[in-house]
From TrEMBL:
Transmembrane segments: none
A Pfam family matched in the record: Ldi
Organism (species): Rotaria sordida
Name the UniProt record assigns to this protein: Linalool dehydratase/isomerase domain-containing protein
Source species taxonomy: Eukaryota, Metazoa, Spiralia, Gnathifera, Rotifera
MF terms in GO: heat shock protein binding; unfolded protein binding
Position of the signal peptide: none
Alphabetical list of InterPro entries matching this protein: HSP_DnaJ_Cys-rich_dom, Ldi, SSUH2_homolog
Bias kind Polar residues: ranges: 11-22
PANTHER family (alphabetical): PROTEIN SSUH2 HOMOLOG
Amino acid sequence: MTKVGPELTLDASQLSEATRPNATDLLPQPTAPPPPRPLPKPLTDFKTRCYVIGRLFESTTRGGQPVGDIWDYEVPIPASDNAKSDRSLSHCNYLSRCDNCRGKGLVTCNASGCNGSGWVTCSSCSGRGRTETSTQIIICGCYNGKVRCSSCKGGGKIHCSDCKGGGGFYHSATLRIKCFGNDHFQKSFQQVQKSILNNKDDTNQLLSEKELKLIRFISYLTYMQTTTTTTTTTTNLTWNGSIRYSLAHIGYTAAALAYRTPNYLELAIKILKDSIERMLNIKVWGYIDRYWKNVHTFPDPVCHENIMYSSHLLQLLTLYESLSGDFTYDIDGFDFIWDKDNDRITKIHYNTTKLAYAIYYQMNEESSAGVSCEPE
């Protein structure tokens, strides 16, 4: 019978650090993260298309023409006042590159912890790769404390939020047309005039928000435009919203502005001058051939009747001269140039004084001391 030796007892505290076993060494170690999986073909094609689109928009803004002067667009005369319509300006459409993604359609994923790597810290193990309790150590199913980012699916890129992944933008221009009759401008002028008369405090020179909007609107319609051309579609003699009335009341509103608020004097003068230049355009007074073609003074638009035009023009001229101190229209004068329908070009020279005398002469000749708008 074999004799059993005494049991040897070891004290772990007497062992060196090199020989002391580590509990984690006895557990299987996590493997390295696998390489990224190849993208499915549809997604690969999508990224290719995004790259092509990105190259398309990479240079700069492309195509499209400036909207230009709003007076240059001809629109049909509306059937009633306060009509609205939209017109697509296809020649102004253009493409532009997205600055956020530089035309690529994709941007770096900015999810917390990802920053384009495609991986984020595992929330189960807080990035340690395992969880420990008092009795056991559990290896997490992540890769060294990392999991694929749910935002970019591990790709590190996401769709650009600005262009929705398109890489650029398509810009289209639409001209919105709102037609107002003469009553609209007459009421606007009367409202400004009424506010002036009711303003008893001479120190209160502030304009209301509505008045400021009106001034901004008529500024855009007049001197802020690139040219002084006027569309031919609003010169119908019989229509209450003919352009001569609109221009006249725009000028009257500017004059009321200068009276109310001297700080806006320069602005009012610009509006008045531009209104006068547009009033002298044949597209405003060219309707005279419909009524006075056979009159011996034709094509003079102011010496025979037509007070519905000549009086407004004279009023604008005198308001401009009184506010600006500029008497160019009275000293150098201005010309009515008739060049309509291939007729012989005729230039008729006037100045402010001559225009006033032409109206005065007709009033003296008429027993009623008035001047007709149209032929009787």
